[in-house]
């Protein structure tokens, strides 16, 4: 049982070094997945060809979020978009481990901070 309510979901988009980084914060679940899906769709419509989904500030992700990631990965491969994930917190990475998807998806390391 949780001691406090989860932080509200938010999603930032940052451009730099030839890629667009999508940074969701909070929980990716049935209540928030449509917002993330809309952000990714906007990037596709704008012609972004290198997208990184940074899961570092995601506190929880359910099967809805996993389906979104898998669908986006499949569409990106089909459409020639370079799509990668920055690893999330252990609770989020565990989802990729138990589903056997660590080797199927492309994970990149977060940039080092000075």
Outline type: globular
Question: What is the CA-based Rg, rounded?
Answer: 14 Å
Individual helix count: 3
Low-confidence stretches: none
Order of helices and strands: EEHEEHEH
Strand content: 25-35%
Q: What helical percentage do the residues reach?
A: 25-40%
CATH architecture: 2-Layer Sandwich
Distance between the termini: 38 Å
Number of strands: 5
The CATH topology is what?
A: Transcription Regulator spoIIAA
- Class of secondary structure makeup: alpha/beta
**Major sheet size, sense and barrel closure:** 5 strands, mixed
State the CATH class: Alpha Beta
Q: What is the averaged pLDDT score?
A: 91
Instruction: Say which CATH homologous superfamily is assigned.
Output: STAS domain
Please describe what this structure looks like.
With 114 residues, the chain is of the alpha/beta class. It has one domain (10-98): 2-Layer Sandwich (Transcription Regulator spoIIAA). 34% of the residues lie in helices and 27% in strands. The chain is built from three helices and five strands; from the N terminus they run ββαββαβα. It has helices spanning 33-45, 63-79, 90-98; strands at residues 10-16, 19-28, 50-54, 58-61, 82-86. Strands 1, 2, 3, 4 and 5 form a five-stranded mixed β-sheet that branches. The mean pLDDT is 91.
């Amino acid at each position: 049982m949780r001691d406090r309510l989860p932080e509200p979901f938010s999603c930032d988009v940052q451009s730099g070094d030839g890629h667009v980084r999508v940074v969701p914060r909070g929980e990716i679940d049935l209540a928030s997945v449509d917002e993330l899906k809309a952000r990714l769709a906007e990037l596709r419509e704008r012609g972004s060809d290198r997208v990184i989904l940074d899961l570092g500030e995601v506190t929880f992700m359910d099967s809805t979020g996993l389906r979104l990631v898998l669908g986006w990965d499949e569409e990106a491969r089909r459409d020639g978009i370079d799509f990668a994930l920055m690893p999330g917190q252990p609770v989020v990475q565990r989802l990729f481990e138990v589903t056997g998807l660590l080797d199927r998806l492309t994970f990149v390391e977060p940039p080092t901070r000075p």
